[in-house]
Specification:
With 122 residues, the protein is an alpha+beta fold. The chain has a domain of 81 residues: Carboxypeptidase-like, regulatory domain (Immunoglobulin-like), CATH 2.60.40.1120. The protein has one helix and eight strands, in the order H-E-E-E-E-E-E-E-E. The longest helix is centred in the first third of the chain and has 21 residues. The radius of gyration is 24 Å and the shape is globular.
């Protein structure tokens, strides 16, 4: 009789472990960020330098890339973060912030003249 209860208890514990491990959902770690760069609100800018970084101590998010022919660049980021985005080309510059959420993240940045107070940069 005691042997049956031990066997039944062990089976219940194993079943509980299987259910608890089987129901765990893994994060996709997909916080990709697509930055689209324009000037004068509509002209797409190719070869603009885009700097994406997390302005916190100890962060490993600090990337530089150039935009493609469509004025876009994609950053592969695997952690949720709030990032600062700085974009420049020639005498134009703009800055922005973006909170990254799981799945695709998009932001459009419109370049302004370097000394323009509305370019978002400090």
């Amino acid at each position: 009789m005691i042997y049956t209860f031990k066997k039944l208890g062990l089976a219940a514990v194993l079943a509980l472990l299987l259910v608890s491990f089987g129901s765990c959902e893994k994060e996709s770690n997909n916080y990709d960020l697509t930055v689209s760069v324009t000037v004068y609100d509509s002209v797409k800018v190719q070869n603009a330098l885009v700097h994406v970084f997390a302005p916190v101590k100890g962060s490993f998010i600090d990337y530089f890339q150039y935009t493609n022919e469509q004025g876009e660049t994609v950053f592969k980021i695997d952690k949720k973060a709030v990032v600062e985005i700085g974009v420049s080309k020639g005498s134009f510059r703009s800055c922005a912030f973006k909170e990254l959420f799981e799945g695709g993240n998009n932001i459009a940045v419109d370049l302004k003249a370097f000394g323009d107070e509305e370019n978002g940069c400090q």
